[in-house]
Amino acid sequence: MSKKRVGILTGGGDCPGLNAVIRGVAKSAITQHDMEVIGIRDGFLGLIEGLSLPLPSSAVSGILTQGGTILGTSNKEDPFAYRRKIDGKEVVTDVSDRCMGFYHQLELDALICLGGDGTLTIAGKLAEKGANIVGVPKTIDRDLMETDTTFGFDTARTLATEAIDRLHTTADAHHRVMLVEVMGRNAGWLALEAGIAGGGDIILLPEIPYDIEEISAAVARRNKGGKRFSIIVVAEGAKAKGGEQTYQKSVLSQVRLGGCAQLLAQQIEESTGVECRVAVLGHLQRGGTPTPYDRLLATQFGVQALELVVNREFNAMVAIKGGEITAVPIQRIMGKQRLVPLNSPLIKVAAAVGTSFGAKLPV
Ligand code: F6P
């Protein structure tokens, strides 16, 4: 009898811990269950274009601590709406049958998909077409439903906190307002937690639209109280009350958040007369070696994903709830985002230590 085969792909933006999951899946598949592991290159692009590679033990040895993904990733390719240029014109086609064809050609018993909401929503749609899917939640944004956290978040939070720590001394020395823009898309988890851990004076979240007058008043209050500098932690998805999020100009069609901190710096300088400087952390938050927490979580997720395959519990996403590694139906997370609730205990805690959210908080 031929060996059982499991495929694995990484989709969407990379984050620290992807390789630790790949290693967890492959090592337990090979050593515990005598299975074969096939890597799909570059996320769903590999499934569309038929790009794969075998993953024997030697291929996953020594990758636990590496950032990025040994499989490559892509964050634009959707098999259900695949965009290509034909004779200079953009054509959008559904190539999901082609993906299913490649899945069967590889004789996969299951496909493990590592990704955020975009990747896992596509994976869920492939499950509806008959693929045996197991999802693994990854994202530095921690914006996935049905799991308390995702691997990658802790590493990004650590980096952002260290950046805020470092900005304190230069802000203090020059009596400036330092604005630090962090990632997170439409969710403010990264800004909120790094902001509290780093002692940010003002934290701006997408979930709490800001008022420039409140921000300026908070800066002025600090100056009056003898603190001649302020640190403002800005989520890239933050927006003014009644305003829109800020986007970067892009030559390619993708929508990219970014630029909110720069915009705010000009407005704060104008209204307070205090000099402002901006630091945008950008993709630094996605690079480097995962923290011990993320390595642990990623390894647990990888081993659990393979367990689900072995037990034929498909169309599920691995999750962590109350410290327990578990699984939830993938359909429950498709097309949804987990945002910071306005009654979050962390918002209360931050407010209790004098942090401003640039707006009046609902009581
Ligand atoms: O979802 C992860 C994330 O890093 C977001 O925080 C950010 O908005 C986005 O990806 C950036 O994506 P890209 O790699 O396409 O610039």
Low-confidence stretches: none
| Bulk shape | elongated
Secondary-structure element pattern, one letter each: EHEHEEEHEHEHEHEHEHEHEEH
Individual helix count: 10
What's the quaternary structure here? single chain
Structural class label: alpha/beta
What is the fold named in CATH at topology level of the largest domain? Answer: Rossmann fold
Order of strands in the sheet with most strands:
3-2-1-6-7-12-13
Q: How many structural domains can be distinguished in the coordinates? A: 2
Distance between the termini: 65 Å
For the record, the CATH architecture of the largest domain stands as 3-Layer(aba) Sandwich
Given this structure, which CATH class of the largest domain is correct? Alpha Beta
Alpha carbon gyration radius: 22 Å
Cofactors, ions and other ligands in the entry: 6-O-phosphono-beta-D-fructofuranose
The major β-sheet equals: 7 strands, mixed
Mean pLDDT comes to 96
> Helical percent range?
25-40%
Beta-strand share of residues:
15-25%
> How many beta strands in the DSSP annotation?
13
Explain what you see.
By secondary structure, this protein is α/β, with parallel strands linked by helices. The chain folds into two domains: 190 residues, Rossmann fold; 145 residues, Rossmann fold (3-Layer(aba) Sandwich). It has ten helices and 13 strands. The strands form three sheets. Strands 3-2-1-6-7-12-13 form a seven-stranded mixed sheet, with helices on both faces. The chain has a four-stranded parallel sheet with strand order 9-10-8-11, with helices on both faces. A two-stranded antiparallel sheet has the order 4-5. Helix 1 links the parallel strand 1 and strand 2. Helix 1 crosses helix 9, helix 5 packs across helix 6 and helix 7 packs across helix 8. The protein starts with a strand and ends in an 11-residue tail after the last helix. The structure holds 6-O-phosphono-beta-D-fructofuranose (F6P).
